[in-house]
Amino acid sequence: MASKRPLLIPSPRTPSTLEYPSLPTFADLLKPVPEDLNSVSTMDSNNNPIENQQNSEHPFHSSSRGSISSLQSRNSGSGNSIREVPIKFGSKGAESDGLGLSQKEINDEDARLIYINDPAKTNERFEFSGNSIRTAKYSFITFLPRNLFEQFHRVAYIYFLVIAILNQLPQLAVFGRGASVLPLAFVLSVTAIKDAYEDYRRHRADRIENNRLAWVLADNQFQQKKWKDIRVGEVIKIASNETLPCDLVLLSTSDSTGVAYVQTINLDGESNLKTRYAKQETLSKVPEKDKISGVIKCEKPNRNIYGFMANMEVDGKRVSLGPTNIILRGCELKNTGWAIGVAVYAGRETKAMLNNSGAPSKRSRLENQMNRETIILSMFLVILCTIVSVCAAVWLKRFADYLTIIQFYHKKDYSETPVEDYNYYGWGLEIFFTFLMSVIVFQIMIPISLYISMELVRVGQAYFMIRDARMYDESSNSRFQCRALNINEDLGQIRYVFSDKTGTLTENKMEFQCASIWGTDYSSGKSSSQDNQVGCSSQDNGTVLRPKVVVRTDPELQRLLRSEKETEKGKNIHNFFLALAACNTIVPLTKDTSDPSVKLIDYQGESPDEQALVYAAATYGFMLIERTSGHIIIDVQGHIQRYDVLGLHEFDSDRKRMSVILGCPDQTVKLFVKGADTSMFNVIDKSLNLDVINATESHLYKYSSTGLRTLVIGMRELSDSEFQIWQSAYEHATTALYGRAGLLRKVAYSVESNLSILGASAIEDKLQLGVPEAIEALRVAGIKVWVLTGDKQETAISIGYSSKLLTSKMKQIIINNNSMESCRRSLEDAKNLCKKFQTTSSITQNGEGSSGTTRTPIALIIDGTSLVYILDSELEEPLFELACECSVVLCCRVAPLQKAGIVALVKNRTDDMTLAIGDGANDVSMIQMADVGIGISGQEGRQAVMASDFAMGQFRFLVTLLLVHGHWNYQRMAYMILYNFYRNAVFVLVLFWYTLFTCFTLTTAVTEWSSMLYSVIYTSLPTIVVAILDKDLSRRTLLRYPPLYGAGQREEKYNLTLFWITMLDTLWQSIAAFFIPLLAYWKSTIDISSLGDLWTLAVVILVNLHLAMDVIRWTWITHATIWGSIVATFLAVMVIDAIPSLFGYWAIFNAAGTAAFWLCLLVIIVAALLPRFAVKFCFEYFRPSDIQIAREAEKFGDVTQLGGAEIELNQMQESTQQVAR
């Protein structure tokens, strides 16, 4: 889980100089720890390398949302002169010498100057981008050339364009010039119309956005101005609930302390409020009365929405600006009357627009494999053309002396008097032209309609996936989203699933469960939440305040809080809950209820963990009531107390903890710290209360083993001298213009030491509904599920058992190392252990008298520290070999880039399809690395969704998506591709056979219009409808027998063998379709046009009946399209033959009037399809596939009634389980 919160809260003691650190981003993670910082951090005795780069799923870990944005920013060429470094998945690669923006000096080349309230001077030297935005791709002028350029990226389109151009040459004109262009023009037009409509919608949205109104300061008063006319440097006023038109640096707000609350749901999908602050130097200025002037020096536009570095000179004083001083375009102002700011980035230079990009384009495996068959068909086409050319060459040589008198050969034109010569170019050129003419005649061997058919089928498949009620999440009111239409069929071939844990397998809705305080475990007794209502309310001016969520409490702990306030144990309990209430960035908001005298406090925060802890503190009587920029108010056991926030050190991925320094009502200064146990025990004074420390460690292990998320709480009281030293260093760090983040980290390291332990908290993140059943179904389906999490190993293992990822029968191999050599030894030992388990299993089975080998299921558990040394090293291959021997791989304490590295480990070494699923920004790199990426619409924003190919609300929907829709999509698309190859090839071969009987002159009996309409109109619609609607098995059967999913993994419906079998069938059907009419009308007086119409109708009926033989689920739409296409073909042929100006006038009417015509059609159909029917019957009867067995079970009843079929299904399931292991 990743969390992001508002940053440092200004201290009232240093109102004019305070500054806040930026959130750690990948740029921060990619840099080495400064030398001066290393001297401070030596207190960490277990200097773990993963600590320096890990962004794990901990409640207070920094967000990798900033990481991804920073990474994009550095690669976007946005002007930041930061040396690019290669991305590596191990921490060594990650900790290169790249500098983060927060540590880089803003020099003149990398800065832009904004003169406050002086847009003319701001834009005098450089004309900055206006605020008009454009998300549309095309303009009226550029649409046609740009759209055609994009479409012709498909090589097949270039091929058909060349064919159409060749047909325009008089020497090569086989078809009419208009008819030859029609198929390509139709496909291009359909795509262009779709693109034009989509772009029109973008233009309309842009126009609405650009014409919105905002209040802009002009002539000492705020006037309304269209968004598109706003310029950098102008002062803008935003009212509550309004959306920001551009990126603004806050100058003042309606709050006296300069706080503004914003909602970034339009930016990253998060609905929780964030706090932003205005500087004290500009807070008191009234724009309508006081002249606001100054200059802001900031970094050039970049994509990092969680980082900002600038300084501001105002009234002769320079102050620094950070990410908490800027509000980005698209954010909404909430719970704040108004806010005034100066525009620093506008239009396309705003961070929101720079991040306005979709998921990376991916191509499906079937489409890539289709290229192989396309090349084969292209070679076959060349062979056919070569045969025709060679035969034509031989024929020309043999009859060279008779060319002038042979009728129909174009050397002499006898239609005119006197007789004239045709353009005869000689033997060599005639052969060359014959080859090119052959290419034109046989062009549809490469099915141009297949591409647009695939697009339409994918749209139809996506429609039914989106409308599937079984993938609708009621809790979030979200439907399934199909964000990448071109990889639907890949869902049916997945072999590996890489899953995040927090928010993906779990709900990411945290609930406080228990605590260990001062060595005592308070996890035994629980009172009901109703019993706590009275004890957790507060009186404020006659109004009763109650927390929105009340957690269950421990009765003993409540008794101690009430009766033992003055004892040492009571004081530690008091400090523990005070730390929970104060050490956070939660914003309390009051909400009305049906009772006017009662209000609910809703704690808004970016971390569900923090919300759970604050609600727990409120339930125990420590209710956070108010938070401002300099203080917090807490109701402590019925007494309202104010605590001054003297400083707050945000969580960062190096320290893995956060701390707050409070000025308490008793005039003491206390430091409260909470964080991960791995980092906290390094800064706790072990010479104090060793028994308490040992007991807390024991309780932590107990909590983790039951799947709870833990935090350690510590504190110490600062003396006056310690506080003065810290305050001086803190002020220096927060006002530093350069290296601010590093200095703040150093100050935090220095003060967070010699802590006294208070205890530990335990929060439950419950499994989502149906997760154990989903994982078991995926495992039975032959899909390996790997979990990659940033949580502790004990927590991850516990969740593994509860989710059925781990079972009691599995042998566990755990690798936790901190050096490359130890990792190498562990991998070798683990591989030997796997062989030992395998040998033991074989011996045990043979001793029991059974045959075969049953593999002992093995689970590999490895931590991020070990992966530091394994990834990007020679140890990757041994890890991959070991992982392949394991049924389950569980990676703990891993960073975002390590997640992507694990996916790459499998993806780069195997042809198996990979799928990654996650809900947070720290899962983005993993999602984009996998063949298929799925985002969960959860509690951590929408960055995972925005980067994904598909999105859904719950992990359990993955079963329906893969086992049902994935199976259907793969089966349909695979069949459609092969069918399109067959459909076009059979027509081409009929034309080829005819060429052999016409002196290789490439004249054709089929009219040019029928030839062009064949693959576009005559036969295209049925295959599209079948590919969208047909179902080889029902949903119930697919879910009941997950091993049926293996058909896609084994590529049963699309492979090279099946392609060649299809081509052999095509060859036979073309022979039957051509030679039966030829023999029937041999030596007759039938005209060639009538025979051509017979061949056309025979092939159309043949391919449609071929399709009908394979349809499983008939619907009225399927009937209408298949039989309707045959009827439409008859009508089209009659219309074409009824046009006097076209060749073959009235031919169909003459031919269809004889019985021989209809008899030929019947014989062709029987002869062509009989071998296919016989082979299909034999295979399904004697060697049925798993799918055919299941289909018979659906047809005749329950599988258990089928005897042998049941046995085969069981064997299939066992074999699939062995593959999964």
TrEMBL record:
GO terms for biological process: phospholipid translocation. Residues 212-276 form the P-type ATPase A domain. Its main location: membrane. One of its GO terms (molecular function) is ATP hydrolysis activity. InterPro entries: ATPase_P-typ_cyto_dom_N, ATPase_P-typ_P_site, ATPase_P-typ_TM_dom_sf, ATPase_P-typ_transduc_dom_A_sf, ATPase_P-type_domA, HAD-like_sf, HAD_sf, P-type_ATPase_IV. Pfam families: Cation_ATPase, E1-E2_ATPase, PhoLip_ATPase_C, PhoLip_ATPase_N. It is found in: Endomembrane system; Membrane. Residues 945-1185 form the P-type ATPase C-terminal domain. Residues 62-81 have a biased composition (Low complexity). Gene3D superfamilies: Calcium-transporting ATPase, cytoplasmic domain N (3.40.1110.10), Calcium-transporting ATPase, cytoplasmic transduction domain A (2.70.150.10), HAD superfamily/HAD-like (3.40.50.1000). One of its GO terms (cellular component) is plasma membrane. Residues 1-22, 37-86 are annotated as: Disordered. Belongs to the cation transport ATPase (P-type) (TC 3.A.3) family. Type IV subfamily. This is Phospholipid-transporting ATPase. It comes from Dillenia turbinata.
